[in-house]
Write a structure and sequence with these properties.
Low-confidence stretches: none
Number of strands: 8
Largest sheet: 6 strands, antiparallel
Order of helices and strands: EEEHEHEEEHE
Strand content: 15-25%
Structural class: alpha+beta
Distance between the termini: 24 Å
Length: 183
Amino acid sequence: MLIPNNIESSEKLVHYLFTKHFKRKIISSEISDLNNREILMPNKGGVSLQRTRYCNENKCKEFASMIPDRVYCGFLLFSKQDFENVKSNYIKYSRPDFEAILKHTPLNENFEYLPNNSKVFVNSPGNPAHSDLIYLNPAQINEEKPNTAIRSFTRKFLQFCTLLIDKNLESNDYEGILFENCN
């Protein structure tokens, strides 16, 4: 199955969760226990995501477990539509110059970005369902640092996300609420 470059508004995306994303590194099923200094912050240009339509829970767990120096514990799930709605309100009521996008950014077998508009399939080598949340313009106010503006957006956005904690971290298979069972 070909993975389209366009991410549809009905699609769900996930961000891997690691212990560093939680306050005091205590894993909880409460969104309020996420550390907004860590969650959804850009790394090497973007925030790494997976498109759930093209990557199941077990494959997502496999990819998350491969990331060095991180302790995987679950996923943060959201829809593109919720992302766009929160972004629109954030622009309208808080930061008119703010700009962020969700972009399909498939990775090859060496986990390097493929050229834009590369054709990838669900079974392509590497990570074909990879995407990024890219903050094009965090829209800092005065001398504020970009991370302050991003954390402000994140606090609003997290209210529309679902926290999925893996119940068996020792297993290769994900054990928890399935992506398809979340609103």
